[in-house]
Amino acid sequence: MKAEVICIGTELLLGDIVNTNASFFAKELASIGISLHYITTIGDNKERIISAFKLAFERADIIITSGGLGPTVDDITHECIADFLSVKQDLHQDIADKLQAFFKDRGREMVKSNLKQAYLPSGTDILTNNYGTAPGLIYNKNGKIILTFPGVPKELKSMWSETAKPYLFNLQPNKSLIKSRDLRFAGEGESAIAEKVSDLLALENPTVAPYAGNGEVRLRITAKAESEEKADSLIKPIEEEIRKRFPKFYYGSDSENLASVVGKLLIEKKQTLSVAESFTGGTVAKRIVDNTGASNYFTFGMVAYSEELKIKLLGIEKELINTYSIYSEQVAVEMAKKVREMTGTDWGIGTTGLADNIDKDNVKAGTIFVAINSKEKTEVRKLVYSGWKREDIIYMGSQAALNLLRLALIE
């Protein structure tokens, strides 16, 4: 079965919104063995939307749309489908009642334009939206299938996983699915990781492929099978072999990130953390508290950006700064130590460096220092990212600091 995704919305063409829905559908369709041949992005224009449907019907069995299901005048997806299929739109009273209840529960009066969402083209079924006011539709006739989704990612993803994905999977005559597992590594480069698993990169099912970005490397193991259980059985021995080869650099899988893994390790060890940041500007602290349960181990974070406040708030000796520069290993270590002592935590993280593209104090632009400190251990790293964008240097600094702590916690 061949699929085409049509993403509708002028804001997508203007670049105001990044089209994450297209990549979501691409991954999800592949996971259930459906080939995605085309992705079309189109504005809120009736003539062009209908033309896109005509072309999609010629070259695909499944047409999936996102966007254009709202109550405003430029939300015309269902109207266009009705015109394309040469059918009228029918009022679904159950949708209308749900809309009324939705607004009543929120203490608001439903305006007349919202009723537009209760009309669907004749001969189509409702694709229920449990997280918003815009339902989608399912059309399945003469070997052609249409599914429509709102553009809001949260609503779209829920509708897909709850209804559309199992619906499409069950329609396939020869059911197969594709399942992937991402293994994540930090502290080693892509080429070095790939070299150590070169024999596994030649596998056909499952396959192993390396990816790099954001200060880490991923090895994606992908298996094709008739069920998730069978796919898991193909993935498991390869995952175990890879993890065995990288006991230090492997840190987690799939949606895990360094901050979440560090948090789990701190909880396991019943230890706590505080951070004092300079060039990272609170990025380390934010990444930590983005994870549920951070209050169990994270107690305090501060951004001491200026030299004066590093001295006044953290108690770093001015002589130390004058001797080694504010951008130095020594200052990073002192920041980690002082914030730990000030807060009474088990660990402290300190970051300082130059995220700008101008050399200062005989320190090369892009040079950063990250440090960790406990009563028993101090570690510091110097990294240089000359020519990198400021935001990338900041993120890489947070990544390096978290990985430094992770390595200390697994020793």
Give me the secondary-structure topology.
Blueprint: E1 2-8, H1 10-13, H2 20-31, E2 35-42, H3 46-59, E3 62-66, H4 77-85, E4 89-91, H5 93-105, E5 119-121, E6 125-127, E7 136-141, E8 144-149, H6 153-171, E9 177-185, H7 190-196, E10 207-213, E11 216-225, H8 228-245, E12 250-253, H9 258-269, E13 273-277, H10 283-289, E14 298-303, H11 307-314, H12 318-324, H13 329-343, E15 347-353, E16 367-373, E17 378-384, H14 390-410
Parallel strand pairs: 1-2, 1-3, 3-8, 13-14, 13-15
Antiparallel strand pairs: 4-5, 6-7, 7-8, 9-11, 9-12, 10-11, 15-16, 16-17
Helix pairs in contact: 2-6, 3-4, 9-14
Rg on CA atoms, Å: 27 Å
> Spans of 5+ residues with little confidence (pLDDT < 50)?
none
Q: Would you give the CATH topology of the largest domain?
A: Molybdenum Cofactor Biosythetic Enzyme, Chain A
| Count of alpha and pi helical runs | 14
The CATH superfamily label of the largest domain reads: MoaB/Mog-like domain
Sheet of most strands: 6 strands, mixed
Number of strands: 17
Number of domains: 3
For the largest beta sheet, what order do the strands appear in spatially?
A: 2-1-3-8-7-6
Level-1 CATH class name of the largest domain: Alpha Beta
DSSP helix fraction:
40-55%
CATH architecture of the largest domain: 3-Layer(aba) Sandwich
**Beta-strand residue fraction:** 25-35%
Give the integer mean of the pLDDT values.
94
Helix-strand category: alpha/beta
Distance between the termini: 50 Å
**Shape label:** elongated
3D architecture notes:
- This protein is of the alpha/beta class and 411 residues long.
- The protein folds into three domains: 2-171, Molybdenum Cofactor Biosythetic Enzyme, Chain A (3-Layer(aba) Sandwich), CATH 3.40.980; 177-253, Alpha-Beta Plaits, CATH 3.30.70; 258-410, Maf protein, CATH 3.90.950.
- It is 40% helix and 25% strand.
- It has 14 helices and 17 strands.
- It has helices at residues 10-13, 20-31, 46-59, 77-85, 93-105, 153-171, 190-196, 228-245, 258-269, 283-289, 307-314, 318-324, 329-343, 390-410; strands spanning 2-8, 35-42, 62-66, 89-91, 119-121, 125-127, 136-141, 144-149, 177-185, 207-213, 216-225, 250-253, 273-277, 298-303, 347-353, 367-373, 378-384.
- Strands 2-1-3-8-7-6 form a six-stranded mixed beta sheet, with helices on both faces. Strands 14-13-15-16-17 form a five-stranded mixed beta sheet.
- A hairpin with a 2-residue loop joins strand 10 and strand 11.
- Helix 3 (46-59) crosses helix 4 (77-85) and helix 9 runs parallel beside helix 14.
- The longest helix is centred in the C-terminal third of the chain and has 21 residues, at 390-410.
